[in-house]
Specification:
Strand order of the largest sheet: 1-2-3-5-4
Largest sheet: 5 strands, antiparallel
CATH class: Alpha Beta
Shape: globular
CATH architecture: 2-Layer Sandwich
Radius of gyration: 15 Å
Order of helices and strands: HEHHEEHEE
Oligomer: single chain
Structural class: alpha+beta
Number of strands: 5
Number of domains: 1
Distance between the termini: 49 Å
Helix content: 25-40%
C-alpha cells in the first residue's frame, strides 16, 4: 500500500532531494494521498498550508498550479498505490514541490493547439519554474520535482 519500496522511503527521497545547505529551521513535509480526483484539491491545500507556514505567499499561486498539474497527472496514471506529495527547502531561496506515483511512465511535454482541452500541464510547470523541474525514476514509479525561487529576504 506504499508508493515507494522499502529501500526508497520518504527519508531516502528527502536525502536525494535536499541539499546539505538547506535551512535548518524548515522541516520538509510529505503527505500520501489516494489516487482519486479529490486528492488534487487535498494536494493544493497541503502545499498552500506549507507555503503559508513558511511565509512564501508570493509563490503560493504558482505552487498550487504546479502541484495541481502534477497531482492530476499522477491520478491519471491509474496506479493502485498512493501518491506522495512533498515540499522541501533545498536552500534558503529554493522551494521544491514533489509528486511521486507508482507509474514508471515518464511525463512528456507536448505541444497543444488552441482547441485542445488538455495537455498543457507540463508546459505550465516548465514556464512557472523557468525549466527547473525533472523526474527521478524509481524501481516502482517516479518522483517529479519542480523548483520555485523565493525572493531575497528583506535586509532591513
Amino acid at each position: 500500500m506504499t508508493l515507494l519500496p522499502e529501500a526508497v522511503s520518504d527519508s531516502a527521497l528527502l536525502r536525494r532531494n535536499q541539499s546539505p545547505r538547506a535551512p535548518m529551521a524548515v522541516a520538509p513535509a510529505t503527505v500520501r494521498l489516494p489516487y482519486r480526483p479529490e486528492s488534487v484539491a487535498a494536494a493544493r491545500r497541503f502545499v498552500t498550508a506549507k507555503f503559508r507556514e513558511w511565509s512564501l505567499d508570493d509563490l503560493m499561486d504558482d505552487a498550487t498550479v504546479i502541484v495541481s498539474e502534477l497531482a492530476t497527472n499522477a491520478v491519471k496514471t491509474g496506479c493502485l498505490t498512493r501518491m506522495l506529495v512533498g515540499v522541501r527547502r533545498p536552500s534558503d531561496r529554493v522551494v521544491r514541490i514533489l509528486v511521486g506515483d507508482g507509474s514508471r511512465s515518464m511525463p512528456v511535454m507536448v505541444e497543444t493547439g488552441p482547441g485542445h482541452t488538455s495537455g498543457r500541464g507540463l508546459a505550465m510547470v516548465h514556464k512557472l519554474t523557468a525549466g527547473r523541474w525533472g523526474v527521478t525514476p524509481l524501481p516502482l514509479g517516479k518522483v517529479i520535482h519542480a523548483d520555485l525561487t523565493a525572493s531575497e529576504p528583506d535586509s532591513r
